[in-house]
Amino acid sequence: MRRRILLKLSIPILSFLFVLSARGLVFGATAVPELTGPEALKAGILLMQAGEWDQAIALATHMLKQNPRDADAYQMLVLALFEKGDNMTVVHAVLQAERSGVQTAFLYQKQAEAFFRMNATEACLQSLAKIETLPPHDARTSG
Amino acid sequence: MTRAQADNPTAPCWWQRDVWLYFAAALVFFTLAFLIQHGPEAAASGSWQYTLRHNDEFGYWAFARGATESPASDGNPFYFEARGHTHTLPFTTALIVGFAAKILHVPVMAFFPVWHILMPCLLWITLFYAASRIWDYPKPQSAAAASLILLSTLFLTGQPQQILYRFSRPGDGLWLILLWIALIFQVKADETRRVVLMAVAAFLAFWLQPFYVVLGVLITGCEMLWQFFKERNPRLALTHLAVLFAVGMAAATFYAYVHAHMIENPWFFITNEKEAAAAQIAPLPLLLYLAVILLVWLGVRTTSRGFTKLDRALLFIFLIEPVTTHIQFILARNFQFASHRYYFLVIEMAVLTAWFAEKMPDWLARTGFRQKEKMLWAGLAMAVVALILNPHTNFFRYMPVPDSHYHIRDNALILLGLFPVIFLAVRAGYGLLTWPSPKWRRQIGWGFVLGLGLLGYAIQPSQIRDQNAAFPFDGAYQWLNQHAVPEEVVLTLAPSRRWMSDYLILHTRQKSYFDAFYGKTLPSREGEHAYRARLYAALMLGNLPVIPFEGLDSLEAKLKHLRLDYLLIPAASPFRKRVEGQLADYLEVVYEDKQCLLWRLKL
Fold first, then answer.
1. Contact list, A114 vs chain B (CB under 8 Å)
2. Cα distance from A119 to chain B (closest Cα, Å)?
3. Among residues B538, B540, B564, B560, which one has the least CA distance to residue B549?
């Protein structure tokens, strides 16, 4: 009797978890397909276009596990975090990128915007100053 | 001056030929040092106009520039809205330079090379004069010791490394205090000229910076009590009292000035309240003073001279360390006395050198000392190496420290490290004196001094090299000087140069819209600096027109809130298109070259 009740309950619970998992709300990392390289980047762009920020974060995290110096993955991660409004994590993610040797104008731009949102103007200017000191081909602020 | 006077060793010091040779050599050396130190900066920036090497110096020159305005605006020389306010506590030398520039119709920066050559030269001459004339040491040794003491500061970490070049403190007053302190122990009650010299030096030093006289007053007070109670010489004690009276006069006139300018400067009380009290014991200065007491005791016990003037000088001068680091127990706050002890480092080094030089012949005459000397050398050398190798005790500019070599260090820690160095240097000096060939002795001695000095200047890094490198705005500054109306406001859009290198203020008659460091530190209306910073950042980020901004809606209202006439940007700036995109309707190009672009703002 008890087993039957558990079986009946497990079907909707598992279905609910499956849906959440697909949307990246729980078990986010496992919901990400095992993509690498350009395919992962394309998938990331699609996720961000669809506003699926959590899945994009999960995908970027996965990509960074594959290659800790992947500039595209960092940019995807930082953009998704920024769009989610997680300003402090944006700041830390850019610092992490910097420590890994990844420095792009886009990352510093987002870090500056995050600081600006937090009313940390001097820190914002520091991030902007880093854009100025990057080599010219890395210093586009539009990308 | 006749030839007979020039060659007469008993003639007044200034008439003797060799003294003039020393002065000429010092002038040539410090001119050469200026070129060595600032030449690489000029090469990096592309012009001799942009060769500042230290952020503090930028601030002091800016105050001088503020003093050239009518009315003087050195209170915050950067901002248009802060015009007409002067500092309540004056930066006297900066003010004098500003007024001189105004009278002579030259830019303040015309005094830059003059300062950098003549200030160390004057310090050297004073130290040489104090040693050779006031304390009667032989001239060659005095000259060598003065050179080594001053030049060795270039190799120290923290603030002391700036003593020989920073405008304007402590170089502007250090020579006066040196003169005063050198005279305190050598003056006699009937030597009116010397007493007047001490009083004038004390008065001027107070006006240059009241902190300068703390050491002089402390020593004069101690010496006065010594003469009165120990030597039973009330006339000499009265002489010292007369000098203290001159200090009192200086204090009274200074207070009158400050009182008058409190009304003029509405921010005085706000800035005065910023410093918090920190009443805690400082162990290192106490340890240092204990070491000095032990040293004096050792000196008295191991030599035949008894308790000498130099023993007294050492005890009185080093008293400044525990006194200034514990002044908060009396005055409720420290008033930055502790952090400014390095102003007196040269004097402390000088008295320590003289003290070791006095004791050394007696020690060298002792058989026991000579037998154990090698062990002592080795022990002290190892102690120095151990201190330098540990970043927390390191005093050497070119070995690691826990943070930055520009951070303030505990003066007592530096001095504790210098004790063995000075001892070894004095011992080496005595070794050199016994060298058989006088010619080689001179050549080795002066070769070492010259080499050390030139090396010190040549290898010392510039703190703001990054901001000087390929300085792009020279053409725009020239255009502004020819075409712009004085006091129009320029916003320089180069975030990487925002820290303390806003040369605009020094080389044009314009005001700056935003200075990241001094603009914030110096007084201005509440919230004004934050507004400037936020507008600057929003413009760089590209969202100035769209974001709600301090209760202002339209872009025009945001730009008009504080005066802004021009925008200056490097030609290759990654932000150029973004600025043009936001302000397209308001910008008119008035100057452009390969390095920069100057827009006039049409509002």
1. none
2. 9
3. B538
> Taking every pair of C-alpha atoms in chain B, what is the biggest distance, in angstroms?
89
Asked if A113's CB is within 8 angstroms of B494's CB, the reply is no
Q: Give the residue from chain A lying closest to B569, CA to CA.
A: A132
Alpha helix stretches (DSSP H) within B69-111: 92-104
B141 within domain boundaries: no
Share of chain B above pLDDT 70, in %: 94
- Position A10 in a domain: no
Find the range with the poorest average confidence among B305-309, B460-464, B522-526: B522-526
ipTM entry: 0.77
Inside any domain, residue B309: yes
Q: Number of structural domains, chain A?
A: 1
Q: Is residue B20 part of a domain?
A: no
Q: Which residues of B touch A130 (CB under 8 A)?
A: 496
Say if residues B526 and B81 touch (Cβ distance below 8 Å): no
Indicate if the pLDDT at residue A136 is higher than 80. Answer: no
A81 in any annotated domain: yes
Gap from A73 CA to chain B (nearest CA, Å): 23
Domain containing B492: what range? Answer: 474-601
Count of structural domains within chain B = 2
- Chain B: give the shortest CA distance to residue A118, in Å: 12
CATH code: domain of residue A51: 1.25.40.10
Burial status of residue B203 (CB atoms within 10 A of its CB: 0-12, 13-18, 19 or more): buried
Domain that holds residue A101: 32-138
